[in-house]
Design a protein that fits this description.
The structure is a single chain. The protein has 191 residues and is of the alpha/beta class. The protein has a single domain, classed as Rossmann fold (3-Layer(aba) Sandwich). The protein is built from 9 helices and 5 strands; from the N terminus they run βαβαααβαβαααβα. Helix 1 crosses helix 9, helix 2 crosses helix 3 and helix 6 packs antiparallel against helix 7. It binds adenosine-5'-diphosphate. The site of adenosine-5'-diphosphate has 19 residues, from helix 2 and helix 3.
């Protein structure tokens, strides 16, 4: 089982991807997490990635593809969360898998209205401020949130069309537990 999981910022894909990975025994790969880890290593490339993330822009495709392809090396069952982010990455990924003699099982799209997702991110920022100040993500600043949604609309949303032959679309509104149930049901019906 090889799944890509995508949705807007604030769609809850990180939370749901972790649940799904557990439920289906898949290795969960989050490119966002991989990049945030790279930022911490203090190298020149790490700093460049850090600046890009803080600005709410996308890390360049060559770096993203490299990091992802390395992360899935030797894995038969995985769930990729946060990749691909645009059509170029999606095409490269298809080609890469084809070269490995395999293909994606499906693309799961977590569908949340932009206004709902944006509200969630603003709320998350406030909650984090209450708890641990330095846990706040730099890319959760209001102006950056706006830019992340713009990038999402322009670059990531076209994936819905690209994956139209293998997409599973799940409504991501409701409580996390409700959404988890909806995803499980959609996958059962699809299989
Ligand atoms: P969110 O979906 O809430 O933006 P992620 O953790 O998936 O959170 O991603 C955080 C940031 O990491 C993105 O805004 C982007 O800068 C970078 N990133 C993650 N995945 C990719 C990717 N596949 N290509 C380019 N940049 C990426």
């Amino acid at each position: 089982m090889k799944i890509v999981f995508f949705g807007s910022p604030g769609s809850g894909k990180g939370t749901q991807a972790a649940e799904m990975a557990k439920g289906y025994s898949l290795t969960h790969i989050s490119t966002g997490e991989l990049f945030r880890a790279k930022v911490l290593d203090g190298t020149r490339i790490g700093r460049r990635i850090g600046d890009t993330i803080a600005a709410g822009s996308l890390v360049d495709d060559i770096t993203a593809n490299y990091v992802l392809f390395k992360a899935i090396e030797g894995l038969n069952r995985f769930l990729v969360d946060g990749y691909p982010r645009n059509i170029a990455q999606a095409k490269m990924f298809d080609l890469h898998l084809e070269n490995m003699g395999t293909e994606l099982t499906c693309a799961l799209f977590l569908d949340v209205p932009i206004e709902v997702a944006e509200q969630r991110l603003i709320l998350r920022r406030t909650k984090r401020q209450d708890k641990v100040e330095n846990y706040r993500r730099a890319d959760d600043a209001p102006t950056v949130i706006h830019h992340r949604f713009e990038v999402y609309r322009k670059q990531t949303e076209p994936l819905i069309q690209y994956y139209s032959d293998r997409i599973i679309r799940v409504n991501g509104t409701g409580s996390p537990a409700e959404v988890t149930r909806k995803i499980a049901k959609a996958l059962r019906e699809w299989e």
